[in-house]
Amino acid sequence: MQPTSRQRVQHTLMFLLTCLVSSGLPAAARVLPNVPHPANPFLDRRDYPYNPLGYIASNTLTGIAFSLVLAVALVQTFNLLKWGAWWMACMTIGAYTFALGIACRFGLHVKPNSQGIYITEYLFVILSPCAFIAADYVLLGRLARYLGSGKHLIIPPSRITVTFVMSDITTFLIQATGGAVSVGATTMKLQRLGSRIFLGALIIQLISFLIFTLIFLRFVYRVHKFEHEAWLLHRENRWYNDWRMLGVALGVSCVGIIIRSFFRVVELSQGFFGPIAQSEGLFYALDTLPLFIAILVYVPFWPGRFIPRDPAVASRDTAGVEPESRKEKEDHTMTERAHAV
Fold first, then answer.
1. CA distance 183 to 300
2. How many domains, in total, are found in the chain?
3. Cβ contacts of residue 205 below 8 Å, gap of 6+?
4. CA distances for 224 relative to 68, 139, 144, 229, 315, angstroms
5. Would 118 be classed as within a structural domain?
6. Does residue 29 form part of some domain?
7. Residue 80: which CATH number?
8. Which of 227-241, 264-278, 324-338 has the lowest mean pLDDT?
9. For residue range 44-78, what is the model confidence (pLDDT) as tens digits?
10. Distance (Å, whole) CA 74 – CA 186
């Protein structure tokens, strides 16, 4: 028996909880240098050695990023209520947590040495992509079933979500192990070992998502080549009501997540206090912006507009048809019945 939409949401929330627990440890693993506290650390907050960011967060950049991400979260909430597709709710929840993480940077601007605010900010910023990735995993399986083209996926649609979510849970548990080693390290050698374990988990996670992206691209190619009817399913609709635009949106989302994942891998390869980790511009350009685009793209192309609320009973010939076309079909059917009588 295949899990229901509610069960899928519950599984996703459990996945996010796992990410929450595991991503908090690496945040605490950023061991600060063993130097005495200055008498007045706020004389030069930028060079204060107990400032985990390594810079003073800009309230202007924080305000812009927070407003944009929160706006996307609110619009996605509206789309959920209007169009359905509650199996995408994990992305909407992730958008809210991402906005919350960014908002914590207001606090870091005032108290740059606050470990509590920093860990909260780091936790939510790291947690949010888990939700975005999970939503993309679910979407591909749903899209394949809706088109009746699941045979073109290397992994069956009913298993592709579970397979890749379990992969992410595994990599995050490895990250938790690396974080725990770093936290409990009594020597620089053990601290470097923990950092390398954490980096290795990030690399595995990136490879996993790259494999998923290749599976998605192969699926689109094979539907285009071998499933002419499915490929042109919405050919009578306007371009923005064509399921292929949803496929484009998924592709754009994958690219954004991949860019952000590469950035995190390179960042950690230099260490928690490397030049990339201490650059606010790079954080917004290669972390926040790609993730913002990865969720923004679903605002005009919300999956619920293309995939019926219940794909198991919806007809592929009528689902996704524009209201005018559907009404014409219904009128035609009633006319035929009148003539038959």
1. 43
2. 1
3. 167, 168, 171, 172, 261
4. 35, 18, 13, 9, 21
5. yes
6. no
7. 1.20.1070
8. 324-338
9. 555 556 677 888 899 999 999 999 999 999 999 99
10. 46
